[in-house]
Task: structure prediction
Amino acid sequence: MRDSASAVSRSKGTAGDQPNQTMPGSKPAAGLYLVATPIGNLDDITLRALKVLKGADLIACEDTRVTGKLLSLLGIGGTSLAPYHEHNAERARPALLARLRAGAVVALVSDAGTPLVSDPGYRLVRACLEEGLLVTSLPGPSAALTALQLSGLPCDRFLFAGFLPVKAGARRQSLAELAAVPASLLFYESPRRLADSLAAMEAVLGPRDAAVARELTKLYEEVRRGSLAELAAHYAAAGPPKGEVVVVIGPPAEAPAAGEAELDAALTRALAASSLRDAAAAVATATGLPKRQVYARAVVLQAKDGT
Result:
């Protein structure tokens, strides 16, 4: 998707449009503003974000200490902060809606990056929309999209899957459900679970290209690229990295157009009698096709079969 800022700036509003900008020095219109904040580099704050954060009657945030520090660094003071996160969302939402109904300007931010990505903000947005209250987004930094851009992997189709389950069995099940998705996969992950998760990804998804991005936009930004097996081995030896982590995994390999039906039939028979690895190895030997390609196709077939 390409941004179209020039088209937006030339567009003329209609009676049914919601306001999406304010005149210099004026207070934003009443409503809920979804404000993206820097993921590391303070200079990534946008002019619109500064204007709304300064003019807001209330800023709803994951952690008031984190957002308070950000506002101090930005030179913004005097704005009320209210916690809004997964643990208190059901209790806090009615109060926020009451303020919005009364004509307040409410900004919603996450600790870093774009709100609603891996947080409960969408429920507040849905409640506002159901009541006809203004909701608008101030786009900006996103760790997931930044990692995708830097990964060197296909960006034309991708799926963001948030955090994987902590327990090994549930994690493998979640990965199996995603194995056949014909797109790059994006995950957030805890540094201390990174090596185990990469090993599980390789076991379930097969030998795919991947990238691990951390400390994005910060001084020690790093993107390590390689196969899932190589990355799993590196972090198992090096230990947990520092900083926030995003894992990007390339899409599954496509089976060759010629002989696809024969390959699938051979794999189906082999999978009925053997483990995934043994079945893929046997078929690769029998057909002469690359082991990596056959294994990737076996992962897709097994996921489709639900086994």
